[in-house]
Write a structure and sequence with these properties.
Two copies of one chain form a homodimer. The first copy, chain A, is of the alpha+beta class. Chain A folds into two domains: 1-72, Winged helix-like DNA-binding domain superfamily/Winged helix DNA-binding domain (Arc Repressor Mutant, subunit A), CATH 1.10.10.10; 75-133, Dna Ligase, domain 1 (2-Layer Sandwich). Chain A is 39% helix and 25% strand. Chain A is built from five helices and six strands, in the order αβααββββαβα. In chain A, the strands form two sheets. Chain A has a three-stranded antiparallel beta sheet with strand order 1-3-2. A three-stranded mixed beta sheet of chain A has the order 5-4-6. In chain A, α1 (7-17) crosses α2 and α2 (25-34) packs across α3 (41-53). The radius of gyration of chain A is 17 Å and the shape is globular. Chain A starts with 6 loop residues before the first helix and ends with a helix. Chains A and B meet through α4 and β6 of A and α4 and β6 of B. Chain A binds a DNA duplex through residues 1, 3-9, 24-26, 38-43, 45-46, 65-67.
Amino acid sequence: MAPRMTRQRAAVAQALEGSSDFRSAQQLHESLRASGDGIGLATVYRTLQQLADGGEVDVLRTADGESVYRRCARREHHHHLVCRSCGRAVEIDGPGVEEWAARIGAAQGFADVEHTVELSGTCARCREAVGPA
Amino acid sequence: MAPRMTRQRAAVAQALEGSSDFRSAQQLHESLRASGDGIGLATVYRTLQQLADGGEVDVLRTADGESVYRRCARREHHHHLVCRSCGRAVEIDGPGVEEWAARIGAAQGFADVEHTVELSGTCARCREAVGPA
DNA sequence: ACGAGTTTGACAATCATTCTCACCAGGGCA
DNA sequence: TGCCCTGGTGAGAATGATTGTCAAACTCGT
């Protein structure tokens, strides 16, 4: 049962297409309201969750526990390098990391091993904005 | 200025020593109250945060966004393999992962690259508890 | 033991997220 | 095209972890 295509769902999807950064549900809700799309906060959450379940978007958690969402180019498993300052995100894949995780897990007798690998740093643009250290 | 040694601080520290699993602030608070140590929830949070700042304990976030704490044997940087079912945690180090993260970051022009690497799976004990697949 | 400065703890406040439930709209069908 | 059923929506309440507040209690150097 594919979800119905509603104005709200389309708006959320489009908002995600528009940016290459991770955005929180709150941020998306705000910018949607700002751009005239009447939409409820609960709907934004619901839609994001459905998109995430369907693998349409990637979810990760910021340091302060907020969930952020991003429409990713590749649907296969991959990781991110996110700028702490501006939020710009780069998709990366970890050749070897996957295998490493599986190997470690097996060595400890664990099955169904999943892994979370995220990198964060300060991107070149933000660094030069404040001047070199 | 080393923090003062109070009954509450000692109780929290001891509670952490007692277990090898990650525990939430709420759980710790509850078990401290249960074992007769009168302590406020706010104090548990404060103490855990201070311990975490001082590198005394490791913090990570569960899938539902709750912070969990654990007293770790090694103080150097390391990662964890946590059982999804029973919460048992194994400390692991990632030879190569650190370097890999730094290399990826540099290649994208990022500085001060930090990385988060956590593994989760089902440990052997839990697996046999329900029988093999 | 004394006093200054921390720490505590009950409770309120915050904040993201989820729940509720009456109302509304998408879309298959006649 | 119009109807109706069903899933989707949204305003606001509820939840639950975490943090802020501030007077009272406690630690520790003297």
